[in-house]
Task: inverse folding
């Protein structure tokens, strides 16, 4: 590993509209000791040409090519190639603030940490950013991650030695959840900076934001079960996990009620309801989860249809 070199891994697939912005945000970092690894995942638009032009202008950029296999495989190939002492992941339709790498690297080095997490932007302005930095215990980091669903791998910079033997699971939704759960299990502490340094693209239609499917239901269940089984339990963590399961599964339950043709025999909604019943309590129950466990599924479907009729809302996820 090259001392203090940060390897930035960027999977790329047909993002010509946003790619130049992403690359510019990396090349214009105030911290310059970078290795920018662009992995072309079989793009069919002008993404490759944009990458090649950028590489000619900045020799820190390296381009890898692979057959279309998904971002997990692209990230894995990037990790195999990386030579930096630290690793960062960026999605190619997003971009980062110019001080992101420098600020986080300073915190890593000054506090002798293996991983530091930061925040993404919030256009709704509902989230409070106080720019404070804390060093959290494992329990604190786990609880905050679950409470805020902060499983995105691009929210952190990692010491390469910490994750050198970890890889992403190919061709699954929520790959980040599995990676971050495994990460949290191998750290004693984590740095957390409550500052928005990552700009998340809400325009591009990703797998997560695309039309709801049964694949999403199954993927959500698998990821949640992995959290449930692999995050160590303490009294505080157990309560946070139960709240997460109730809220997350209730969301999937109502998504299937809005798309009932995906679950005609109600198999998945019964499974979700059973898990909700096992984890619900007075501390974490809400109106929708109460409806889920008290009323027949047909009533939930009718309430969803009524709400859609009154508001004119069309739900897809």
Result:
């Amino acid at each position: 590993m090259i001392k203090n070199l940060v390897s930035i891994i960027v999977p790329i697939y047909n993002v010509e509209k946003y790619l130049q912005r992403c690359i510019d945000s990396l090349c214009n970092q105030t911290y310059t000791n970078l290795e920018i690894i662009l992995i072309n995942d079989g793009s069919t638009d002008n993404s490759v040409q944009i990458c090649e032009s950028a590489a000619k202008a900045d020799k820190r950029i390296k381009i890898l090519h692979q057959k279309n296999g998904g971002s997990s495989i692209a990230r894995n190939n990037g990790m195999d190639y990386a030579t930096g002492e630290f690793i960062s992941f960026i999605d190619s339709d997003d971009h980062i603030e110019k001080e992101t790498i420098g600020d986080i690297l300073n915190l890593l080095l000054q506090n002798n940490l293996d991983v530091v997490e930061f925040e993404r932007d919030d256009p709704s302005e509902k989230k409070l950013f106080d720019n404070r930095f804390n060093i959290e215990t494992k329990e604190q980091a786990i609880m905050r991650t679950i409470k805020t669903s902060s499983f995105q791998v691009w929210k952190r910079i990692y010491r390469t030695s910490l994750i050198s033997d970890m890889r992403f699971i190919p061709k699954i939704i929520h790959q980040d959840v599995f990676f971050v759960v495994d990460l949290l299990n191998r750290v004693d502490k984590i740095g957390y900076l409550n500052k928005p340094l990552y700009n998340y693209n809400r325009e591009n239609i990703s797998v997560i934001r695309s039309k709801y499917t049964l694949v999403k239901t199954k993927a959500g269940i698998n990821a949640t079960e992995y959290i449930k089984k692999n995050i160590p339990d303490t009294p505080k963590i157990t309560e946070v996990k139960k709240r997460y399961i109730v809220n997350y599964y209730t969301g999937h339950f109502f998504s299937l009620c809005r798309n009932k043709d995906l679950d005609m025999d109600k198999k998945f909604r019964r499974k979700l309801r059973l898990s909700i019943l096992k984890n619900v309590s007075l501390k974490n129950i809400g109106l929708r989860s109460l409806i889920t466990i008290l009323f027949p599924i047909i009533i939930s479907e009718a309430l969803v249809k009524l709400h859609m009729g009154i508001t004119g809302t069309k739900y897809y996820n």
Summary: The longest helix spans residues 235-258. The radius of gyration is 21 Å. The first strand starts at residue 2 and ends at 12. Confidence is low (pLDDT under 50) at residues 311-317.
